[in-house]
Amino acid sequence: MIVNVLRFSFRNDVTEDEKAEVLATMRRTASTGSVAFAAVGQDLGDPAEGFTHAYLAAIPDLDALEQYMHDPVHVKGDDVILGRLARLSAVRLSDDLDPGLHQAIFAMHARKAAMYPDWGREVEALLTA
């Protein structure tokens, strides 16, 4: 199982309706066929870290991860989500002990960033904010 945990906060100018739209969009993405289980909601970490919400998606394996990353629901959803976030933190973990797993996931991300360069720049900017 590959688990992706995103902690994030919204930009100050994002309305409550827009926040609700982002969370609903994330829930749609998390309900695609490649996802084994998911959670979208409040971040329960230290408020001083500046994160207010979290997204978790558990994906069974690399083939499912590839499908998830390129699922039209996911790709379209990022257009709604990314521009409304102020910052983002990503943590990935797995029960698969394959030492090459990290490299394989990084390569998938790099391929997607090459396919969608604007997406890649937006994600990188949020991760370094």
UniProtKB/TrEMBL annotation:
- Pfam families tied to this protein: Dabb
Q: Where is the Stress-response A/B barrel domain?
A: 2-93
Q: Which residues cross the membrane?
A: none
What protein name is recorded for this chain?
Answer: Stress protein
Q: Which organism is it from?
A: Parafrankia soli
Starting at the broadest rank, the lineage of the source organism is:
Bacteria, Bacillati, Actinomycetota, Actinomycetes, Frankiales
